[in-house]
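tool_log.txt
---
The assistant was asked to compare two proteins side by side. It first ran the structure predictor on the initial sequence, then on the second. Raw inputs and outputs are pasted verbatim so the downstream comparison step can read them without reformatting.
(1)
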Amino acid sequence: MTKNFTFALADTVEMKKPHACQTNNWEVMRLGADIRLKCMGCGHVVMMPRADFNKKVKKLLAKANDPVNQKSDFYVPKEEIARPNFS
C-alpha cells in the first residue's frame, strides 16, 4: 500500500505505534532526507529517515495552515506560541 501524503512543517500526523507516553500524535518539525518529529504528548523529539517515516506513518491528522484549524477555540498559530529565551 502506497501512501501519497504531502507533508509541510507543523503538520500533525498519527503514527502506527504509540510513543512511550501513549500518544500517537506527532508534529513535523523538519522535512528533507530526514524528518524530525515532536511528540504532542511529552514533547520528545526524534529524527528518522524519510523511508522509515513513510513506513511508520498512519495518517495525516491536521494541516498547519488549514482554515478549519484556525476556527478552533484552542488553535494557536505557530508564530504566537511563546518560546523561552535560554540565552
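(2)
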Amino acid sequence: MRRTTRYKVEGANSLWHVYKTVPFFKVVKNFIVIEIARYMPFLKAKNWLYRTFLRMDIGEQTSFALMVMLDIMFPEKIKVGKNAVIGYNSTLLAHEYLIDEYRLGDIIIGDEVMIGANCTVLPGVSIGRRAIVSAGTLVHKDVPEGAFVGGNPMSIIYTKEEMEARQNR
C-alpha cells in the first residue's frame, strides 16, 4: 500500500490548482536544476546539484544515469540510500495530480538498490535495501529488501531468499 496524503480540490481538476500547492518560482528553479542534471555526465556534480538546490537526501556513491526525471514539484520528498543506481530515463514521482484531488508521498530507496532503465516509481513507495527493479517496471507498491521485481503491474520475480539461493548455486 502506498503512503500518500490526499488533498481534495473543488472545481477544475487539481492540476489547475498547482500554484496553490507549490510556489511557481520553486517549480522554475527545480525544472532548471533537473534539466541540467539530466544531461550531466559527472555523478558527483549531479548529486551536489540535487542535494544543494533540491534538498534531496542522497547517499554517497549513488548514481543517477542520464535522463533520470525527478519530481519537479516535490524533489525533497525523494530519499535515496548509498551506492544505489537509478537507471537511464527513469522517473521518480512524489506527487499525483488527479481530477478531484492531488496526492503527495515520500519515495524511499534503500542502500545498494538497482533500478533499471525506463522505470517509474510512484509516490509513497519504499524500495528495500539491495532490491533490484527490472527495466521498464512501474513501481506502484513497496519492494521488499533484497527482492527482484519487474513488470507492469509490478510483481515479485524472486524474493530475497530465492535470490540468495540462486547466487549460492
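---
observation on (2): The first strand starts at residue 5 and ends at 8. The chain has one domain: 5-167.
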